[in-house]
Specification:
This protein is mainly α. Helices cover 58% and strands 0% of the residues.
């Protein structure tokens, strides 16, 4: 219901603002402001996006929680979409989301309402909790490939169909 109201109200607000601003300053200055905010917004989104990307890389390098840099990146992306949408109302929200204090406040508001069940990073994170040796409660560790584990496999040698056919580059050719 809230999404329906947003899709209904935002265009109505934009049309009303276009009429008011256009009546006060004229058509061409109004259109110039719309184009100027799109160009300025694109430049700001690019610089803020690069900063958020740097923070995300840093969180991956230090193996810290990347949730906040990812959320900032998503908000910057959303701000860019709002700034490219013609209108004063959407531009106001887009420019607001480009301000780091506003993004921090939005992140804190959203993070209080979202519960993360589990988060793991680093070696072995995809296989759940790591147990020393084969001390897993169910016997064998999930995804275990350490010493003592046996991996059975088959192979088949593939030869070229014709003597003039060159190898694909994925394998060495005949010597």
């Amino acid at each position: 219901m809230y999404l329906f109201l947003a899709f209904l109200m935002v265009p109505l607000i934009e049309i009303g603002l276009f009429i008011q601003v256009g009546g006060a300053i004229g058509l061409w200055p109004t259109l110039a402001i719309v184009v100027l905010t799109a160009v300025l917004g694109t430049a700001l989104v690019r610089s803020q996006g690069q900063m958020a990307l740097g923070q995300m890389r840093n969180s991956f390098q230090t193996l810290s929680d990347p949730a906040e840099p990812l959320a900032h990146g998503a908000m910057i992306l959303f701000a860019g979409a709002l700034l490219l949408t013609p209108g004063f109302f959407t531009d106001a929200f887009g420019f607001a989301l480009l301000m780091p204090p506003v993004r921090v406040a939005v992140y804190r508001y959203i993070s209080k309402r979202v519960t993360v069940a589990q988060f793991q990073m680093g070696p072995g994170a995809m296989h759940g909790r790591q147990y020393p040796g084969n001390q897993h409660p169910g016997g064998k560790r999930p995804g275990a490939t350490g010493p003592g584990d046996i991996i059975d496999g088959d192979f088949e040698e593939v030869t070229p169909k014709s003597p003039n056919q060159k190898p694909s580059g994925w394998v060495e050719g005949p010597k």
